[in-house]
């Protein structure tokens, strides 16, 4: 019995080798059977259903999705697996701001040899996020989170207000709303959401980190970010907007009962509104973010992630093929948008996949036209190797500032963030400009 | 105590056996101690003396190496501007929690023991029940009650014409966190004290009563002195729990601007290790906290001396 099976297995293996050789795979040495099983960590909902289409079309490269808990826990888990030397998946969903940290820990592989020519498929800002402005490619953009402004159209109408196009308009709308009803606010300054503030700074023209030659620079405390901090500090000090954090039971209640009249969110916000404020369906409208200078519109990103191949993967080439399919194939993009509920980063997405508005904005047929415009005008922003340090410094420094309700404290908080971030990099031995 | 089974074998074999047997019984415990306590402590201490050194941009393979750091992490963690405030904060928190919690626990234990309460078992279970609620769940629950816009208490206060205070803002937050710990811990300490009270021979009270002592006098002159060792033990446990306060402020943090990521020393350890990805500083701070806990708890036991462990000498 045993003797009969062995030659048969040998023939099969040889046949499979020939097939893969035809397919041009050079990894055959690693997998004599020709079949490759890839693991994929992701937290996007229903990602396994998106991947089913790939598995059906590629019997030799089978991908299994392992659902993870959000961004931070998944990254911690990956870094632990990298340090331990085993246990990491082949493919990993990674938030843009985590990529420098992952690259620094040597957790993700450079796949420029396999996917370098896909640059034109993505907006510059997203491409910059996966290359960090270098020649290497540390993953392909999967979804992006262009920021958008959401407001209660019914309340704006009743007060005779227009959707703000500039930040000055936003401030006067905030004052008008709070004056008309002192329980209502157009928005809140959330000291708990560093990604949100980073997006607003990005819109103002900031890029908190930069790479030049072999040197990092940190510009958290630059003029553009200061302008944003001063603006919000003034609004909090005069009491026109709230200073409570977002994503609390209290904030949810405020969205629902109409005391939060607007929200500076991102393209994924309809899902949050639907979950937290279902009873207000049909009363909201989406618009572009208010502008600093309406003649040169700009936008920032809040959230968004890439699909990376980990450095531990034994099948990097096949993994890169899968990553390329997932983020550029029209069918995959459509599935990402409709099944996994993400806003695909690919520039073709708006035309091919995003034709009907999200259910919560059913009355706004141009929802994805606005989103595409928001995505198009998003300015490049480079994240650094210690985003985590800067972000936790944001939580503490801006928490104090929001608590004190003093405009001066907001710009001081930026100074603290800048100092904490540069101190940390110097301590670790990074070469810093200046 | 050393009652070894008498055997018919020669004394020589017996001694040889007796030498090995205790060790083989102890082996699993020692092994577990070594693997899950001693080794991690040793590794933490080792990590606390290391740091990473980055070359160039710090991107890609081999750009990060682990190097010897000496006591650098210790100086950095002790001189961190966030460290001392977090220590003071926990000190203030302990001053609120420990006396209040133990005072309440003692009062309730005495009331239950007084024998006049008919609701004994039910009351005991009701008071003990919060201890069975995990700290994170308790904090979420109280978090809801604290947020003025979603709290049913706030509705009640509004109905009475009072503006509910925002306890998660400003200095109120220390009391808000302490309240959760007191709510959760009183029941446990009450059970310990109550059990100690029940172990007291009843005829002591009878004698006191024959001498004309009231319930309050019995409690003050007899019961409290007798449960003092138990009170000391619960104090030590409570102080250790105070130094380790973590889950409550961590859970309330997203709801408030007042709780920083370094609000307590353990939160600083968590931030350094998992948010900042700097396990080396986190290890150094952990070692400092462990030593401090050790010193405080053993210092206290030394201070109160024999009262803690020599109950039998006093009765």
From TrEMBL, chain A:
Keyword DNA damage on entry: no
Annotated Gene3D superfamilies: Periplasmic binding protein-like II (3.40.190.10)
InterPro entries according to UniProt: Bact_solute-bd_prot1, SBP
Region forming the signal peptide: 1-23
Keywords (A to Z) from UniProt: Cell membrane, Lipoprotein, Membrane, Palmitate, Signal
Top-level taxonomic group: Bacteria
Parts forming coiled coils: none
Pfam family, any one: SBP_bac_1
Protein name according to UniProt: Extracellular solute-binding protein
TrEMBL record, chain B:
Keywords on record: Cell membrane, Membrane, Transmembrane, Transmembrane helix, Transport
Family annotation (Gene3D superfamilies): MetI-like
InterPro entries for the chain: ABC_transporter_permease, MetI-like, MetI-like_sf
Membrane topology of this protein: Multi-pass membrane protein
Top-level taxon of the source organism: Bacteria
Principal subcellular localization: membrane
GO biological process, one term: transmembrane transport
Entry's localization field: Cell membrane
A Pfam family it matches: BPD_transp_1
Membrane spanning residue stretches: 21-43, 90-114, 126-147, 167-194, 226-247, 279-301
GO cellular component: plasma membrane
Residues covered by the ABC transmembrane type-1 domain: 87-300
Family named by the database record: Belongs to the binding-protein-dependent transport system permease family.
Entries under PANTHER family matching the protein: ABC TRANSPORTER PERMEASE PROTEIN (PTHR30193), DIACETYLCHITOBIOSE UPTAKE SYSTEM PERMEASE PROTEIN NGCF (PTHR30193:SF41)
Protein name: Sugar ABC transporter permease
UniProt organism field: Micromonospora craniellae
């Amino acid at each position: 019995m045993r003797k009969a099976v062995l030659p048969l297995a040998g023939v099969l293996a040889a046949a499979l080798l020939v097939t893969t050789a035809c397919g041009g795979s050079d990894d055959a040495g690693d997998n004599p059977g020709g079949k490759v099983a890839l693991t994929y960590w992701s937290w996007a909902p229903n990602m396994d259903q998106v991947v089913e289409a790939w598995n059906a079309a590629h019997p030799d490269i089978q991908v299994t999705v392992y659902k993870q808990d959000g961004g931070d826990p998944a990254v911690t888990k990956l870094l632990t697996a990298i340090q331990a030397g085993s246990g990491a998946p082949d493919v990993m969903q990674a938030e843009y701001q985590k990529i420098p940290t992952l690259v620094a820990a040597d957790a993700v592989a450079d796949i420029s040899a396999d996917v370098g020519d896909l640059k034109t498929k993505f907006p510059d800002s997203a491409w910059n996020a996966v290359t960090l402005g270098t020649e290497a490619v540390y993953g392909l953009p999967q979804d992006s989170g262009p920021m958008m402004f959401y407001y209660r159209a019914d309340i704006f109408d009743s007060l005779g207000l227009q959707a703000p196009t500039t930040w000055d308009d936003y401030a006067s709308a905030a004052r008008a709303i709070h004056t008309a009803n002192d329980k209502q606010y157009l928005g809140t300054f959330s000291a708990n959401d560093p990604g949100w503030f980073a997006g607003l700074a990005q819109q103002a023209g900031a890029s908190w980190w930069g790479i030049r030659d072999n040197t990092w620079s940190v510009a958290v405390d630059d003029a553009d970010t200061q302008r944003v901090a001063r603006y919000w500090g003034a609004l909090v000090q005069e009491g026109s907007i709230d200073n409570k954090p977002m994503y609390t039971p209290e904030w949810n209640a405020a969205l629902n009962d109409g005391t939060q009249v607007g929200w500076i969110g991102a393209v994924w916000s309809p899902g949050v509104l639907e979950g937290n404020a279902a009873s207000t369906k049909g009363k909201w409208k989406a618009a572009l973010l208010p502008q600093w200078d309406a003649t040169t519109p700009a936008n920032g990103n809040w959230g968004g992630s890439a699909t990376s191949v980990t450095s531990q993967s034994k099948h990097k080439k096949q993994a890169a093929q899968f990553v390329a399919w997932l983020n550029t194939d029209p069918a995959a993009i459509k599935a990402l948008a409709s099944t996994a509920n993400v806003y695909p980063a690919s520039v073709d997405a708006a035309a091919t996949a995003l034709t009907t508005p999200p259910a919560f904005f059913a009355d706004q047929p141009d929802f994805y036209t606005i989103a595409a415009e928001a995505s198009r005008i998003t300015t490049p922003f480079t994240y650094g190797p210690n985003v985590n340090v800067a972000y936790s410094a944001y939580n503490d420094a801006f928490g104090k500032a929001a608590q004190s309700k003093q405009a001066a404290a907001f710009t001081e908080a930026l100074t603290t963030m800048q100092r904490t971030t540069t101190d940390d990099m110097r301590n670790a031995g990074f070469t810093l400009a200046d | 105590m050393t009652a070894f089974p008498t055997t018919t074998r020669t004394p020589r074999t017996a001694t040889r056996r007796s030498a090995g047997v205790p060790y083989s019984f102890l082996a699993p415990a020692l092994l577990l101690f070594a693997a899950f306590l001693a080794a991690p402590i040793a590794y933490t201490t080792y990590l606390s003396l290391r740091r990473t050194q980055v070359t160039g941009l710090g991107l890609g393979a081999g750009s990060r190496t682990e190097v010897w750091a000496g006591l650098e992490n210790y100086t950095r963690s002790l001189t961190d501007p966030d460290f001392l405030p977090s220590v003071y904060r926990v000190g203030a928190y302990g001053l609120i929690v420990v006396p209040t919690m133990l005072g309440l626990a003692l009062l309730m234990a005495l009331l239950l023991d007084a024998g006049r309460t008919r609701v004994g078992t039910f009351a005991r279970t009701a008071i003990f029940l919060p201890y069975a609620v995990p700290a994170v769940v308790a904090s979420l629950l109280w978090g809801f009650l604290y947020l003025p816009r979603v709290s049913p208490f706030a509705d009640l206060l509004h109905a009475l014409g009072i503006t509910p205070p925002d306890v998660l803002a400003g200095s109120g937050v220390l009391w808000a966190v302490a309240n959760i710990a007191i709510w959760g811990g009183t029941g446990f300490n009450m059970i310990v004290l109550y059990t100690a009270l029940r172990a007291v021979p009843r005829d002591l009270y009878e004698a006191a009563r024959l001498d004309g002592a009231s319930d309050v006098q019995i409690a003050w002159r007899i019961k409290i002195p007798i449960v003092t060792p138990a009170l000391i033990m619960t104090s030590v446990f409570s102080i250790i729990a105070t130094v380790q306060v973590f889950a409550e402020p961590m859970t309330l943090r997203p709801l408030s601007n007042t709780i920083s990521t370094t609000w307590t020393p353990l939160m600083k350890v968590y931030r350094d290790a998992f948010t900042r990805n700097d396990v080396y500083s986190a290890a150094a701070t952990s070692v400092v906290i462990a030593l401090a806990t050790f010193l405080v708890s053993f210092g206290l036991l030394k201070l109160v001396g024999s009262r803690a462990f020599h109950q039998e000498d006093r009765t």
